[in-house]
Amino acid sequence: MSTVAIGFLGLAVLLVLLAIRIPVAFAMFAVGLGGLMILNGPAQALSVLSSETFSLASNAELVVIPLFILMGNIATESRMSRALYDAAYAWIGSIRGGLASATVVGCAGFAALSGSSVASALTMGRVSLSEMDRFNYAPRLSTGAVAAGGTLGILIPPSTGFVLYAILTRESIGRLFLAGVLPGLMLTVLFVIAISILTTVKPSLGPKGPKTTWRRKAESIVGALPILSIIVLTIGGIYFGLFSPVEAAAVGAGLAILGGVIGRTLTLKGFLTAVKDSIATTATVMLILIAAHVIGPFLALSHLPTFVGEALTNLDIGRYGILALILCAYLVLGCFLEGFAMLVLTMPIFFPVITALGFDPVWFGVVVVLTLEMGLITPPVGVNVFIVKSVAPNVPIGEIFRGVAPFMLAMVVAVLILTLFPSIALFLPNTMIGS
Amino acid sequence: ETLKFAHFVPPQHTFTGAIVEPFKTGVEKDTGGELEVQVFPGGELGKGPVEQYVRAVSGVADLVWGLAGYTSSQFPLSMIAEMPGVVDSTGLGYEKVWSVYDEYLKGEFPGTRPIALWVSEPNVLIMKSKEIRTVADMQGLKIRVSGSVPGQLIEALGAIPVQMPAPQMYNALDTGLIDGILTGSSAIRDFRLNEVANVYTEGANLGNILFYVVMNEAKYQSLSDAEKAAVDAHSGIGLSKSGEDNWNAVAKKMMEDLKADPNKTVISLSEEEAAPFNEITYAVTDKAIAALDAQGLPASAVKKAMQGGM
Amino acid sequence: MLLRKAIDGLVDLSAILGGLALVFVTGVILTDVVGRALGSPLYGVQDLVEMSALLVVFGGMAFVDRRGGHVTVDLLEHFYSPRLNKIFVVLGCLTGALIFGLIAWQTWEASKLSVMLNRATNILFLPRAPFQYGVVVLSAITSIAMFARGLRAALNNGAASESAHT
Ligand code: NA
Ligand code: NA
Question: Do B72 and C122 touch (CB under 8 A)?
């Protein structure tokens, strides 16, 4: 059997394991490990288990995950999230789906703080899901909004996705960061439009709240001041060079604790619950990320991504045809692979083709990152969906995938618009840095 | 038979032309394609420089590329090549390292055999905006370093060493979280530092970076005599020289580009201007060597032998 | 019953260790940030964070399993008979137990390599092996706890208690 066939077989086995309810992380571990045993020998496969486990669990950049979860949990335990959503409800609760839109906008704001989608979806999920539940929003809408909104984390700078793309393709990080801004805002708007359409068609997804007085609106803002100031201080600290995005997570958690203690809303019991919940969520999420890194080397050794890439790029279907196929390939591969592993495996194949076809490499970076983000929410392996599931354990995964579908459509629309009007991505870098 | 050659940088990196290509084409040609070298770039078999050596010992890959400085505790004697006053700008780091390998360094490479050992161009100061002309200019600045000895250097020069993962350097420099970075100029383009750093200071002896490519020993022993001969013929001093020459060429080009760029300031310290820096950095070397000697390691002998190998 | 209590105790201990490590990481980074603003950052903070992160990540592994927190694709759950669902739950537990067992074993092997290579963190030279022993113990506890849960699920009638504790 060829290595590529073994690669395909591995993916088929993964689907079967997922279908019979083997936890996602263990299914990925099993397939990665089994595949590596066949392609690289048992001893070598097993040692990947220890090296990937150790290097991911001790990664100084991935520490943002537990820290942001802690921040979210403290904000929840000290009722700051509640105050925030009370304020949002007072201001826009009377609009159908208003809280979901507010959450998406919140995700865009959080994206300015966090370079990773996982951290965005986790923190925003922790803060917002139970709150939207409180106002009778359907889990389908709320989880979908968070899973999709989280993907803004990597589109709006800072973005680990753009840094990796830049390093892989030797493009400018600064240009890519700028290029992500307008598409990120555009996608935010598209998400809000999607929410309005959804709740117009089916109002029960995000029911209208009562009209509130200006007095109530003002009061609610005062109540939300502690958390609003934490957000402003953390984002400000990054841009004024006081701390790095990773450290911002710790600062945010620290400020949330401080705020809770000063405002006497955080009890010792609440603090301990927050820590305990953070540990549990961290374990869930990190295990999935580690498993994704065990499957990565297996697929690399199987040469499956190379095979798919070369098969696609050798077709004679015109430049937009090839672009469409490449993006489809990312969508399909994204069903199985973690986004960054996918970039590493495929960029050497696709990038020369894309530049030879005359597409702008910075523009392509934006489109690829956007497509990778779609891969994060497509079944069966949608990392962001799993992340949301980990903070909303009672919502069936099918419900989340269903909830994500309309946002997925919004992302497809975003890619189409970007392809028709590349200047949406290129305007800022070209005017601010020059072409 | 195939050799899996894994590394952690994109295929367009200097490493490909300097090391991967000459080794791959040489070995495959000599064995008539019997021994194939399969390259896994970009961390396909496992990310980052830190775990590369372990991957070679455990056979995840047959050959790997690594930086000694990321796991310096494993290479106390080899790392002497990184210290100011040892290799500096001679461009002969590979010769110096190989000249002491058999006698002193072999023990630091258990389970593998070295394929190439070379040293980068001298470190430079890559600054966001602060012009460094004298030691006094460095007082209180926050400089990113990657290891213990560079940390001591920065501290001795009066600045504050800051530790952070390499991918964060760009943002940190951009936002002013750090004032500068101490590393070789060949790394500037790898991490796009030229976009956010406007001032560069070269000419002081601020150390170098040591690279290794190693091969799993058991894998080597499993090869036929002809295959072993092919590997031997295309590794060692010759391949190491290719590594070092290419690194120095890239670094030189980078500095020339920066000098030609009207928006960048490149400060090339004269010998007299560099002397106060060197006085301090050589003292750090002496202190580090003395500390190793005190641990019972033959550090003085290694340093002397490396310096003598000019 | 006694055995179950013992296992539960170990799982709680792991989680407490992880929680302490998380508080420690937060504190260390905050100290560094404040110190740096005042001109004296905490040197070697990355070393401390990286090694503590291992305990944060692995401390919660057994705990999250007891909570039933590992993410599964529950799309087809309703199409299976209760008996089949039970078998799948048991299978999931056993797979997890096996994988954590392998992680424990392999990390033990890797710790020997760390000793052989004299591996330590890069600035503070914290030896790597002791942290690997930590991962070995925490993974072994997870493996045992998952195995026990699988066993209980197999022996109990009805659906396995996925979220018995919270
Ligand atoms: Na972001
Ligand atoms: Na997916």
Answer: yes
- Residue A47 to residue B51, Cβ atoms within 8 A: no
> pLDDT tens-digit profile of B166-181?
888 998 999 999 999 9
Residue A261 in any domain: the answer is yes
Does any CB of chain C come closer than 8 Å to the CB of residue B60? no
Predicted confidence (pLDDT) at residue C166 exceeds the cutoff of 60 = no
Work out how many domains chain A is built from and give that number: 1
Q: In this complex, which of A24, A25, A280 lies closest to C67 when CB atoms are compared?
A: A280
Secondary structure E strands in chain C? none
Contact assignment for C74 to A397 by CB distance below 8 Å? yes
Q: Do A20 and C88 touch (CB under 8 A)?
A: yes
pTM across the whole model:
0.90
Q: Which two tokens stand for residue C55?
A: 């305990």
Within 8 A of C51 by CB-CB distance, chain A residues are: 58
Average pLDDT, chain C: 90
Asked whether residue A395 is domain-assigned, the answer is: yes
Burial code of B152-172, b = ≥16 C-beta within 10 A, e = fewer? bbbebbebbbbbbbbbbbbbb
Q: Is the peptide bond before B161 cis (omega within 30 degrees of 0)?
A: no
Answer whether B43 touches A (CB < 8 Å): yes
Three-state DSSP class for residue A14: helix
Mapped onto helix, strand or coil, the DSSP state of residue B68 is helix
pLDDT tens-digit map of B236-292: 999 999 999 999 999 999 999 999 999 999 999 999 999 999 999 999 999 999 999
pLDDT tens digits along B51-73: 999 999 999 999 999 999 999 99
Does A6 fall in a domain? no
Residue A30 lies in a domain: no
How many Å lie between the centroid of ligand 2 and the Cα of residue A381?
4
Q: Please report residues of B whose CB lies closer than 8 A to that of C116.
A: 110-111
- A 10 A CB-CB count for A392 gives 22
CB atoms within 10 A of CB B135: 17
CB of C143 within 8 Å of a chain A CB? The answer is no
What type of residue is B148?
S
A142: containing domain = 60-292+305-432
Q: CB A245 to CB B170 under 8 A?
A: no
